[in-house]
Amino acid sequence: xxxxxxxxxFLRHVVELYxxxxxxxxxxxxxxTLGVSKWTAYDVLRELERLGYLMRHYTLTPGGVGRSxxxxxxxxxxxxxxxxxxxxxxxxxxQEWRAVKEKVLSTLRQAASEERxxxxxxxxxxxxxxxxxxxxRAAWSIALFLAYVRQLGHKGRTAIQRLMAHAPGxxxxxxxxxxxxxxxxxxxxxxxxxxxxxxxxxEHVPFLLRLTDEEASLLDPLWQESGL
Length: 228
Prior knowledge:
Layout: H1 5-21, E1 25-26, H2 27-34, H3 38-50, E2 54-60, E3 68-74, H4 76-82, H5 84-90, H6 93-110, H7 117-130, H8 134-150, H9 154-166, H10 171-188, H11 191-209, H12 213-219, H13 222-225
Antiparallel strand pairs: 1-3, 2-3
């Protein structure tokens, strides 16, 4: 299988979309750009994946409940074709997000132990204030709320789980998480949480609303993958 002119044209558009958003490309978006059916776009992207020019990932569908969709990001091999300098300098941005995500999930797994909760909270807050990209900052903000949920009793955690499972996906679900935490926090008035959550909640919702749908779709699965 060779990189024909047709495949190269599809690949060029994937790279261009990726450069604009720094996020993986959903094949219906590419189909709209090229004026082809989404199935044609999907088939060509699968061919490019087999050739090593694309990497496949899965994200939850914005507005959906528990449904994932396939997205593609260019490999270093693809970037090398169109801009060798970019390939060496930028690398694969999605790998950076995966590293952030893995660190968030690893940190949250430690929050299962009450003895380590304070240590985990300190780590989450430190990472939040040091994060440079909008998605990384939002991920650590969400991690703080999830860490709070982990220290709730069975009744509180179950209520949050049900809310999240039935809420629309994307930004809506992330905003609802913040609101639910705010409601539970207001009943407890714990000194530590009163100080930390009040500050974060003031900026959390406006910050989430500024995220693109693609960015929100990357963040949405965190609540499930954290073992909430």
